C-alpha cells in the first residue's frame, strides 16, 4: 500500500515525511515538482516513476505525495489523503505549513494511528479524538512537564463496534443538526454566450450535535437529479437504492454526508453572464470592455465575484476604468485581475479602457479567456431541495437547519 508520505509546500520544499513499510528518499518528489512546474493547476494525480507510483493531492497551500511500490487503486489512496487533510483541519483548524510545523508531535501521532504498516486503520474523527486528544495550551504544557504523550492507553469504545464512526455516551445540552448543501459549477461558455460544457459537483456537509444514538432520515424534493453519488459509510445504501432517501446514524460533529455529480446531460442553469468586447489592431492600442451580470439566480445576490483574464504576450499595460471594485495587471504573467465583489443589479459592474501593446507586433493572438469566481448564498443552482429530516431512537426534538451555497468551480468564458 503506502510506503511513504511527503508533505510539500508551495516553494517545493518537503517539510514533513513519514515512512511505514520502507524508507523512500525524498528525492522521489522531484518527479512531482517537475509535473507541478510544467502545469501548476493541472498536476496528474498519479505519476509513474522508475521505482514508485506517486499519488498526489493538492489542498490549500500544501501538497501531499504518497509513494507506493506496487500498483494500488488510485482513488483509494486519494480518498485517504483527503481524509488526512480533513483530520488536520478538524484538529488544528487549518492545514497550512505553519500549523503542521507547530504541531509536529500530534501530526506524527495521527499518521501512526491512521495507517498501520501502510494500510488505513483508524480514519474516523471520533475514534481518533478518543485515541489522541486534540492539542490545547494546558495539555501541551502538562505533557512537556510530565513527559506524557497525547495518545490514550485505552482502546476507543467505538473501534470494535458495528458503528465505528460514532462514540458512545454522547450528551449535549442543545441538540442541533445543520446541513450545508454546497454546489460548484464547472462550465465553459463560448464567444457567443452558448454553453459548451456544464456540470455540477455538489456535496452535503453536516454538523451534528445530538445526544445518544439518533437514527436520522433525510429526504429530498427531487432526488432523481443526481447522476452519480458517493456516501459516508454511515449511510444505508440499500435504502437509498430502494426509496431514494438517506437513512443513517450520524457521526458526532462535522462530516461530509454525501457527494454528488450532475452532468451536462441534465439542464445546468448558468447563474451569470459576461458581455465582452476585446479588440487589438496591428500597431495600435487595443480596447477592452467587460460587463458582468446575474442570470437564473431567483433574486439571490451574487457575491465575491472575481475575474481573471490572461492577456496575449504582446500586451504591455492596461489603462482601465472600473465602475465597481479594483483591478490589477501583472506585466510579467500578463494577468488582469478584477475584484468585483457583489453584483448590483441596478448598475451592472463594468470595466473598460485601453490596452497598450508592444510596438511592431504583427502576429496577435487576441482570444483570451476569462476565469470567473463567484458565490450565491441560499441557492442550489441544480434546484436540489431538502424535503424533511426525521429522527428515530431518541425522544427529544432537535433544532434543524439547512443552508444552500452555489459557487464557481472551473468556470471559464471564452472571448
TrEMBL record:
Q: Which Pfam families match?
A: Adap_comp_sub (PF00928)
Per the record, the coiled-coil ranges are none
Q: Which UniProt keywords apply?
A: Cytoplasmic vesicle, Golgi apparatus, Membrane, Protein transport, Transport
Q: Does the keyword Nucleus apply?
A: no
Q: Cite the MHD domain residue spans from the record.
A: 174-414
Q: Where in the cell is it found?
A: Cytoplasmic vesicle membrane; Golgi apparatus
Q: What is this protein called?
A: MHD domain-containing protein
- The source's domain of life comes to Eukaryota
Organism of this sequence: Drosophila ananassae
Q: What's the name of its gene? A: Dana\GF20328
Amino acid at each position: 500500500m503506502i510506503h511513504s508520505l511527503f508533505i510539500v509546500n508551495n516553494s517545493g520544499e518537503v517539510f514533513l515525511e513519514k515512512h511505514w513499510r520502507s524508507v523512500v528518499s525524498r528525492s522521489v518528489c522531484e518527479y512531482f515538482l517537475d509535473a507541478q512546474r510544467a502545469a501548476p493547476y493541472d498536476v496528474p494525480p498519479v505519476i509513474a516513476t522508475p521505482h514508485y507510483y506517486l499519488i498526489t493531492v493538492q489542498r490549500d497551500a500544501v501538497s501531499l505525495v504518497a509513494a507506493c511500490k506496487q500498483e494500488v487503486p488510485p482513488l483509494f489512496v486519494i480518498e485517504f489523503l483527503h481524509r488526512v487533510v480533513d483530520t488536520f483541519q478538524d484538529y488544528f483548524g487549518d492545514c497550512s505549513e505553519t500549523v503542521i510545523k507547530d504541531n509536529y508531535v500530534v501530526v506524527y501521532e495521527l499518521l501512526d494511528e491512521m495507517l498501520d504498516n501502510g494500510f488505513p486503520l483508524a480514519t474516523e474523527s471520533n475514534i481518533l479524538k478518543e485515541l489522541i486528544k486534540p492539542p490545547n495550551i494546558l495539555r501541551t504544557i502538562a505533557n512537556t512537564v510530565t513527559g506524557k504523550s497525547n495518545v490514550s492507553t485505552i482502546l476507543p469504545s467505538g473501534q470494535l463496534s458495528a458503528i465505528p464512526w460514532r462514540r458512545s455516551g454522547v450528551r449535549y445540552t442543545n441538540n442541533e443538526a445543520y446541513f450545508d448543501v454546497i454546489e460548484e459549477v464547472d462550465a465553459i461558455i463560448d464567444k457567443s454566450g452558448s454553453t459548451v460544457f456544464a456540470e455540477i459537483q455538489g456535496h452535503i456537509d453536516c454538523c451534528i450535535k445530538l445526544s445518544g444514538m439518533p437514527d436520522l432520515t433525510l429526504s429530498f424534493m427531487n432526488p432523481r437529479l443526481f447522476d452519480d453519488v458517493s456516501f459516508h459509510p454511515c449511510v444505508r445504501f440499500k435504502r437509498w437504492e430502494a426509496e431514494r432517501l438517506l437513512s443513517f446514524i450520524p457521526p458526532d460533529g462535522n462530516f461530509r454526508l454525501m457527494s454528488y455529480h450532475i452532468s451536462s446531460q441534465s439542464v445546468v442553469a448558468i447563474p451569470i453572464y459576461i458581455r465582452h468586447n476585446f479588440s487589438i489592431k496591428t500597431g495600435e492600442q487595443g480596447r477592452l470592455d467587460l460587463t458582468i451580470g446575474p442570470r437564473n439566480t431567483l433574486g439571490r445576490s451574487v457575491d465575491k465575484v472575481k475575474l481573471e483574464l490572461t492577456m496575449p504576450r504582446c500586451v504591455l499595460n492596461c489603462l482601465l476604468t472600473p465602475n465597481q471594485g479594483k483591478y490589477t495587471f501583472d506585466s510579467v504573467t500578463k494577468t488582469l485581475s478584477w475584484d468585483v465583489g457583489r453584483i448590483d443589479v441596478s448598475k451592472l459592474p463594468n470595466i473598460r479602457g485601453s490596452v497598450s501593446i508592444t510596438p511592431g507586433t504583427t502576429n496577435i493572438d487576441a482570444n483570451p479567456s476569462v476565469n470567473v469566481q463567484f458565490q450565491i448564498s441560499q441557492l442550489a443552482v441544480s434546484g436540489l431541495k431538502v424535503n424533511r429530516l426525521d429522527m428515530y431512537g431518541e425522544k427529544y426534538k432537535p433544532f434543524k437547519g439547512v443552508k444552500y451555497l452555489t459557487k464557481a468551480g472551473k468556470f471559464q468564458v471564452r472571448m
